């Protein structure tokens, strides 16, 4: 498809595939389709409205030493650490894995620089209309003018406006300071995944997170898994407390990072129409129990590209296995209902499970037997209560569906 024509709303572009949004999910899919679909047109729609564009951010993930995004990786760690509520430190090398950090600006530059056939169209998507023969993406330009984009398929990466009604939804919300200390304070050989010494909420969990870049510079974050976000004063107070616990001494803030990631046990189908699909967090790429999304996005977009290259519609492209999603749902319910002490749960994981195996579990690469061994070393009574609460909630949900 190509060219344009005039409709009631203005000039209409056409594309075989339209990707809405140019974040990690949208650009990852564009990167793969640009190489896989040589005979079809692909367009990425990006909003010109600054308020609707996500701020610069970092994405972290782990994988084998060599990876496809290495040109955009700004830092690597070959060891990880965690700190329990009582100050106990667990530190381990994670060979053969490497923990990697990508800055969004570097990722975007790498992907955009490699696109050969994919177009970028600027406009704020106001509506996506499904149809039997084509979908229509309605846009509002920077000048307020409306137009339409006809598409064979639409992959929408925009986050939902409201959390799903079914399941449990917690928010992973955080603020981080990029800091530079007056003298060496950091061990740059290991990233700190969870520091559970911070004050804990009544329900959920809170922790510190440290990505040291060298002995004097790092990203220091305060994170919560709870239902409600904090205000500015709340995040800053928590970070002042945490940097004090780290004994950073005199330091300068050189930047700030902040975000909110929904962690939900609700079902998030990838296909939502005959020609409309959701990707990224909106399509279930986020691991519900951790908030990690980047690796799930890569699995998801690989499946989509492979299906389209083979001439098939990507009916299902799950980022995570069903049994892992069920385990995550149990944990989210336990945290949300106050049945599980979040700090003790995560401390038990680090205390009893080697970090490489734990990372393989979080990536969905462990066997059921390995997962059982991990599970029996967590607070069993609390997790059993959460399991039964999740089972009862599922039964209530099925009865409600039957009655409706």
Automatic annotation (TrEMBL):
It comes from the Bacteria. Pfam families: Lycopene_cycl. This is Lycopene cyclase.
């Amino acid at each position: 498809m190509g060219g344009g024509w005039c409709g009631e709303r203005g000039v209409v572009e056409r594309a075989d595939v339209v990707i809405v949004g140019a974040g990690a999910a949208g650009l990852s899919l564009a990167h793969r389709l640009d190489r896989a679909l040589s005979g079809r047109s692909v367009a990425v729609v990006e909003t010109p409205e600054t308020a609707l564009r996500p701020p610069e951010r970092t994405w972290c993930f782990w994988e084998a030493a060599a990876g496809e995004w290495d040109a955009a990786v700004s830092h690597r760690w070959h060891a990880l650490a965690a700190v329990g509520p009582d100050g106990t430190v667990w530190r381990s090398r994670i060979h053969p894995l490497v923990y990697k950090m990508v800055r969004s600006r570097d990722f975007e530059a790498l992907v955009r620089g490699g696109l050969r056939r994919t177009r970028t169209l600027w406009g704020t998507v106001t509506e996506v209309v499904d149809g039997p023969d084509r979908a229509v993406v309605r846009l509002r330009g920077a000048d307020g003018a409306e137009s339409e984009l006809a598409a064979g398929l639409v992959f929408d990466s925009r986050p939902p406006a409201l959390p799903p009604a079914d399941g449990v939804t917690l928010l992973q919300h955080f603020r981080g300071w990029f800091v530079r200390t007056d003298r060496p304070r950091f061990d740059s050989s290991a990233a700190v995944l969870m520091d559970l010494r911070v004050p804990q909420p009544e329900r959920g969990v809170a922790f510190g997170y440290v990505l040291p870049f060298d002995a004097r510079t790092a990203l220091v974050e305060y994170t919560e898994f709870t239902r409600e976000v904090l205000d500015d004063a709340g995040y800053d107070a928590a970070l002042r407390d945490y940097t004090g616990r780290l004994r950073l001494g005199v330091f300068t803030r050189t930047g700030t990072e902040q975000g909110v990631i929904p962690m939900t046990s609700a079902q998030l189908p990838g296909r939502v129409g005959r020609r409309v699909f959701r990707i990224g967090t909106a399509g279930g790429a986020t691991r519900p129990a951790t908030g990690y999304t980047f690796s799930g996005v890569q699995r998801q977009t690989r499946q989509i590209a492979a299906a389209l290259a083979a001439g098939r519609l990507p009916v299902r492209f799950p980022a995570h296995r069903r049994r892992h999603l069920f385990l995550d749902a149990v944990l989210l319910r336990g945290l949300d209902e106050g049945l599980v002490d979040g700090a003790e749960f995560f401390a038990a994981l680090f205390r009893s499970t080697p970090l490489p195996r734990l990372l393989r579990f979080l990536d969905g690469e462990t066997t059921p037997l390995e997962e059982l061994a991990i599970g029996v070393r967590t607070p069993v009574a609390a997790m059993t209560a959460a399991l039964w609460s999740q089972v009862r909630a599922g039964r209530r949900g099925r009865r409600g569906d039957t009655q409706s």
